[in-house]
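Record 1 of the preview.
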Amino acid sequence: MANQIFKFLLFFFIAIAVNVQGQNAPSTISDKDSAFFSKPYPFILPIMGEKVHQLGFKLPLPMGIMFNALAGRQDLALSKLKIGFNDSEWIDLDDIVKFDEISTVTSTYNARFDMWVLPFLNVYGIVGKTAKADINLNITEPISLPVTTSISGTYVGYGILAAGGIGPVFVSVDANRTYNYNPRLDDPAKVWIAGLRAGPIIHFPKKPDMNIVFWGGAMYTHFNGLTNGSINAIDLAPNAPGKIDDMQNELDNWYADLTPLEQALYNGIYTKVSNGLTSLKNGVETGVIRYNFTKEVTKPWNMLIGTQWQINYRWQLRAEMQMLGSRTAGMLSFNYRFGIKGKNWLQGSSTD
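->
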């Protein structure tokens, strides 16, 4: 009895996983597939792949390399801002600083290696490069400082995907974590992303290796809260020291417009920032501004739509659009799948 229950559960999970991958049910098996099933399952993965093979399901090739290119815009929110000039102590600006707009426009590409460790469970690793990230930051108080800077960097990460479905409709849930490295950051920026996708699979009866998948869904993005880094003063204000003089005048005007009680409250901050600007002006070529702040996505949830064309069991092309929320992005990718031949891990006999 227990063995029959096990077989039923295995059959159920395999069936929904096969639906998700867009493969074909036994009713659409071709003569070529019949020859395939007459032999033992040829690949070491996924675990229990031989049992699935004995049930008459043709699994996707267990391993893949995907190449992705993505460009998009993300709105951010900053808080608890502290700055330091050269080797000075930290100056807490959280009570007085105001931001008009904070956004980053990014173009990136990466490679992802994945494997189906179980017929319904996939794990993967990511390595990529941010070709360019244009960061737009507009500080309105205590000084007016629109900042646009371009940076690049590399990142690595890992993720997991679980898949299921009923009939021609699939559902998948995945989550990944990446570590983003940049020379201006003391520690890598950590990003956690989770996604939910669901949609129909369209088969081509005369081309059993081909299908098209459409999906809609949602994605959640979370950054690590604390960021530490530094930037050369000449990069922040390339027309210094004239720009630094303008910043000093705006700081003086901001302080003069405060009430006497506010001036008494913020005199220490005003003095520290003023002294810091003076030190930058006197050594702008070698001056450094250090920063420490907490960042977050203004709206962590956004919607997404996408499609994938499976040309055959080895090649797929994919496109996805992320929209609404505080993120707008587009992604293009292609995937090549393969398998390592050998005795299937945890293989079983159909008579077990």
